Amino acid sequence: MGLQWPAKQIYIRSFKYDSQLEVWVRNNNTEPYKLFKTYKVCAMAGSLGPKRIEGDYQVPEGFYYISEFNPKSEFNLALKVNYPNQSDKLLSDSLRPGGGIYIHGSCITVGCIPITDGQIEELYLLAANAKSNGEDFIPVHIFPVRFDNKVSLDYLSKTTRATRTCSVLLLS
After folding, report:
1. How far is CA 21 from CA 41, 73, 107, in A?
2. Would you give the DSSP letter of residue 145?
3. Beta strand 62-70 pairing with 102-104
4. Average pLDDT for residues 160-165, to the nearest whole number?
């Protein structure tokens, strides 16, 4: 892999339908990220589509970053995602967009991204090390599906088509 260990920078991306969380690493800004590990997201809440209101059990979709480290989380360890971002604030309920979205352990969720306790311990250490090495902005990108997976794309297409059909029927 050609990396100094531990990695100096990390990037996290998650795929809701595929129940995966990827961790990408690199040593500096001049090299590309390399896939370090893919974790199984061990519980799911909500469905495809963005989070729009507090209590909808949705995992948000979009471009975020780690905004807080919580070593005393009731879910073992937790990394807070900066939901709602500016886009979410414009598109979500103006009074109650929701919040408190984390990547955490314990395999339970009402709208977060849970992984196993062993996995969150590893990810938390990677993120803490990156932060201590000066990475103030740890990106987290959350996608509805893997766009390179035909089964996932077919599911997204079917879901989107059904949503459009319902919208047309409601408007008629």
Report:
1. 6, 20, 13
2. S
3. unpaired
4. 52
**pTM higher than 0.85 for the full model?**
yes
Q: Locate 55 and state its tokens.
A: 């209590």
Domain boundary assignment for the chain:
9-171
CATH architecture for the domain at 9-171: Beta Barrel (2.40)
CA distance 7 to 71: 20
| Closest alpha carbon to 66 in 48, 94, 85 | 85
Question: Where does 16-86 show beta strands of DSSP type E?
Answer: 20-26, 34-40, 62-70, 78-81
Give kind and range of the element (H or E) at residue 11.
Answer: strand 9-15
- The tokens describing 23, both together, are 């961790």
CA dist list (Å): 67 to 46, 62, 75, 171: 23, 15, 17, 40
Mean pLDDT across the chain, nearest whole number? 89
Query: Per residue in 22-34, pLDDT tens?
Result: 999 999 999 999 9
Cross-strand bridge partners of residue 62 = 142
Q: Could you tell me if 7 and 130 are in contact, meaning their C-beta atoms sit under 8 angstroms apart? A: yes
